[in-house]
Structures are given as C-alpha cells and as structure tokens.
Amino acid sequence: MDKSFFYRVIILSIVFLLCLGAINFFSRVKAVPLDKPLEQSFPKKIGTWEDVYNEDMDPKVIKILGVDDYVWRKYKSRDGKLLDVYISYFSYVDRIKTYHSPLNCMPGSGWDIYNIVSLPIKLSNGRYVDVNKLVVKNGPKTLNAIYWYQCRGRVIDSEYKERIYRVIDSIFKRRTDGAFVRIIGLSDNITQKDIQGFCAKVIGILYNILPS
C-alpha cells in the first residue's frame, strides 16, 4: 500500500474523530430553569382579559409530555369572550423531551385540521412576527387555534424552523430551552383582531419572563 495514501487515511480519520468529539461536546446542552414559576410570573390579567379558571394536568401526563412548567387558563374579556391559553416551558429539549405539535395532538384528540395559515402579529415596538393559525373541526364544532414556539429570544411559527434553530443553538449556545404557546378561541364572537391583540401582549410578556 502506498504510504502517502495510508497517512492521508490516518489524518482524515483523526480529523473526523476530532470533529465528532467537538460536535458532541458543544451539543451537550444545559438546562435553563425559569427565575419564577409561570403560575407566579405570567399575569392573570392581560389587557381587558382576566383569568377565570385554571386547568390542572394529571402528573402522569406532565411526565409523558416532559414539561418543566406550564400554565393552562381560561381568560375572559369584559364583553364575555373566552380564550383557552396553554403555555408549556422546557428547560431543555431533546429527541425524547420535546414539544408536542398541535398538528399531531389535535387530530389524535378527534379534531380534523381544516386549514392552517401564517398569521402576522404586530408587537408593541412595531415589529411583526408570524404565528400559526389552525382551523380545526370536530363534527359541527369549529375552533380557531393559534400557536407558536418562543425560544431563546425568538418567536418561531414552524416546527421545522424550531428544529433548525434548536440544532444551531445547541452547538453555539449549548441551549435548547423554550416555550410552546397555544391559544384557542372558545367563543363564536371572537374576531381575528381580538386574537392578534391578545397574542401580541402574550409575546411581549413572555419576552420578559423567558430566558432570552
């Protein structure tokens, strides 16, 4: 065997192993806990909307989902409109401990996805971010569901974008922490303007209480 070829193979093998080791080292993520539980830090009054009911998840479900913290509340407006608000926080995300997308969960709960579109949300600083709007049906009942991922200072509307940013941040920041947010309109008289205004406030609140 040509010695130069043999040496090239050895060098390439060493470089390959070093790269694998570097990726493995930098992709080891650290858990990033919240400063305060969401129950304490997420407000019970948001604009003209006020918390009227708290949902509690079964501890077994919490374990299956892998969430580190969550709030699940019903918010009611002064004119009687009702929103279901669910926010789950993960101190880190990996292949096992991860978000459960409504695209999988809602059909599994008997809801058919009728339509999905991107919904622009104007924040208080004038900047726009995109979230997802789902129209789901179960027999004669139709609901509008809004969801997004808010991770490490970003608002992300796509599962695929979230995974890309997760890989990048796991290498360069050694972090994969983030929150999943789902808001469902429970009243027929809720308008898109109501939803967009409420989402803008929630995003602003989460910017202040989630690790950036």
What is the N-to-C succession of helices and strands? HHEEHEEHEEEEHEH
DSSP helical segment count: 6
- Structural class, by secondary structure, is alpha+beta
Number of strands: 9
Total domains: 2
Helix content: 25-40%
The global form is: globular
Low-confidence stretches: none
Q: What is the first-to-last residue Cα distance? A: 55 Å
Mean pLDDT: 86
Rg, alpha carbons:
21 Å
Beta fraction of the residues?
25-35%
Largest sheet: 9 strands, antiparallel
Explain this structure to me?
It is a single chain. The chain has 212 residues and is an alpha+beta fold. The protein folds into 2 domains: 1-30; 31-209, no CATH class. The chain has 6 helices and 9 strands. Strands 1, 2, 3, 4, 5, 6, 7, 8 and 9 form a 9-stranded antiparallel β-sheet that branches. Strand 3 (69-77) and strand 4 (82-90) form a beta hairpin. The longest helix has 24 residues, at 3-26. The model has no long low-confidence stretch (mean pLDDT 86).
